Amino acid sequence: MKEKWKIILPIALMGVLAVSMWPGMSIPIARFFHLPHGQNLSPAYAIAFCAGIYFPKRLRWWMPLTMFAILDMALNHHYGVDLVNRYLFLNLGAYALLIWLGTRYSVRNTWFKQVRGGILGAIIFYLVTNTASWLWDPAYAKTLLGWLQALTIGAPGFPPTIQFFFNSLLSGGLFTGLFAGAMKLAGAKEVDESEQEQPESEPEKADAPDAPIPAPEESKA
What residues does each domain of the chain span? Predict the structure, then answer.
């Protein structure tokens, strides 16, 4: 891909991420795609995963992780909690894991394989963050049943976590498919344009006709 796409893509995706992660923005996203629920519907998982695939190496780690850190601290301020807490570092570690997962894939992989990777990344993020909630939240018993509760029905008085799980899967697949599809279309267009700009090769000149062979001189007596 051309150098411009390597710069435009990270900036565009970070802008989408910043808007989508703000409170209440997942509901309009769900309505736009005619989806049933808006909770936990965010392109964050897909952006972290796609960063590992498409971002240039010099931007792959620091740009998305810096943006995630800034957004998480802004959300902490919005909800009136400590700007820096252990959940902040947990989220950054989980996003870093998704970026690493993306580096295991390639831009040459098929669209379907990249979408499967995005869904896998969403599953990993969900398992890591909810397992941490099970360990840290006193509402959960520190048993196997308590861990299963953290992954399914959640804590009393809150929406069931299995609903967030399904929305995480939907987010991972949907937004990875959109980003990967856009990049593959952009790459195909650039290849097509480069082929059109290539000058046509000049036809090879036909070999000059062989010179006539002079007739042998008659021998003199």
Answer: 3-189
